[in-house]
Structure of Acyl-coenzyme A oxidase:
Amino acid sequence: MASSSEGSGDALLPDFPRGPLQAYRARASFSWKELALFLEGEDMLRLKKTIFSALEDDPLFARPGGGDLPMEKYRELNFLRCRRVFEHDLLRVEDMLQSPLKVWALVNCLGMYDWSLAAKFFLNVLVFGSAIYNSGSERHFKYIPKIFSMEIFGCFALTELSHGTNTKAIRTTAHYDPTTEEFIIHSPDFEAAKFWVGNMGKTATHAVVFAQLHTPGGGCHGLHAFVVQIRDPKTLLPMPGVMVGDIGKKLGQNGLDNGFAMFHQVRIPRQDLLNRAGDVTPEGTYVTPFKDDRQRFRMSLASLSSSRVSIVGMSVVNLKLAVSIAIRFSATRRQFGPTDKEEIPVLEYQMQQWRLLPYLAAAYALDHFSKSLFLDMVELQQGRLGKDASAGQAELGREIHALASASKPLASWTAQRGIQECREACGGHGYLAMNRLGHLRDDNDPNCTYEGDNNVLLQQTSNYLLSLLARRAQGGAHCKSRLKTVDFLEAYPDILGQRFEVPSLEDCLDSSVPLAAYEWLVCYLLRESDQKLNQEKRSGSNDFEARNNCQVYYCRSLALAFLELTVVRRFHEHTHQPSVPPPLRAVLRRLSALYGLWSLSQHTALLYRGGYFSGEQAGKMIETAILDLCSQLKDDAVALVDVIAPPDFVLDSPIGRADGEVIEVRG
């Protein structure tokens, strides 16, 4: 039955060309157009179509035939393409401020085309530009229009050759000279060189440089950010005292020029200190609105949390692209069959469904989570810009920091494993470079490392959870938060007493089952981690040693389980809300249940060890439910991919074509 939403979708979402995929599309239990409209809305779909059409219609974005370009040529072309994105004016500054999700969509659409291009644009506008806007004040806003007119091109220089994740140990210095009202930016040695900085290699003219701020007689005031010109915008030659260059070829994203820089007594005006966290008067007195040094430090590095949230979105895009390619190929690739004369699509095999469909469910669940976390981050930044210094704002900052610190590992690792599974599920064709899965794997890989090593970041999340338990034990403080991600800990003792009690397989096919199990699992791991930490301290370990000895099997697992719980909860609530159109409820709830149960199944040993599961029936029921959901979603898989896949020109994979005509493709 046609609905008004389907009518609206016909113009924005034209029918796919008929071909081998038509059989699966005809069997789908829902309208893919209706689902796209429900998840995205007309306005967002129109923006995406505009972006994709602009890329496809512009000869500068034509895909090069005959293999990869030489690195220098690729980087030159990537810069020209980045400039053309600005010329197309796909999103005005006012739109970015009024509808932040459109910025998210623009970056991810560019990433679907090429992550080197998306990263170049993102680092200039959203990392460099946002650092100035969020960490600076009105005196710095002069830089913003210059970014959009490309008078200047920016980068974010935090990481050094010898220090990355340990930001407190950054060694670049900024000494204030009151006689000239200037800061002197200096790299004490080569190990303090800024390194891995995207856009710095060839094209950046300005950098947000993080350095230890020193004032005369006042000592060191910790890490602060400064706007530093590193090249002449007209000639791109280095500024006096700046040694800057390219670090060379990487495993992926080689259209992006990652670089290094060293500073030798480079003088910059006092006003180029980004002063939201702290400022220096003309006479050399350090002033800050923060009484707590830790809170000031968090403010100085606030942009890192937003970057981590963005990386979650990037990882989800890579997973979407990979499952789109693999599922379309699996629906057309025929191998073996019940008789020698009849071959069936490999998607009909239970093994192929089990390998791919949980990652399709993960793409949907993580996509919803990443967008919701991005909007949470926007709320936090708006509070900071409004100078909200309330305890609630500070608590929101801690909560989002904990979520961002675990969501980047979960999303990037899920994409990493998912892309590899998709590559293998496509057999030899998946190994052909032209089918893009190898490029996706290489381009996703740095998501596991930059903006904080995944395993180190997880400690931030477990520390947050352990601190909540300690506060609860000491003073009976309530475990409540603005985003309600930890509110379930109010029932911490009661939850630990719960057990898996699902009477039938049918009852197990709902995401409320893994949701309850995850709440128990997080409480169990929190108790175990807390007991392990206290045991280490009682045995004589100092706090550093004790925490270091609690990561493997305890705190690391705790942080990941907590984030998985949060993803499951948000997707469960989203798919069970009354506003979901009735024709979409069944398929969305199956996706929600499959993601929850599949993720939970990776913790089966812990569920048995802690006593939540007992007897072989519990584990068998989870496994059977996963396979049942895969079978139920099999006929919907192609339509679900149609919702998330970009046009063929952007997807750029012969085996992932929308018409399914794999055989006709010529390399």
About this structure: Residues 33 and 156 are 40 Å apart (CA to CA). Confidence is low (pLDDT under 50) at residues 1-6.
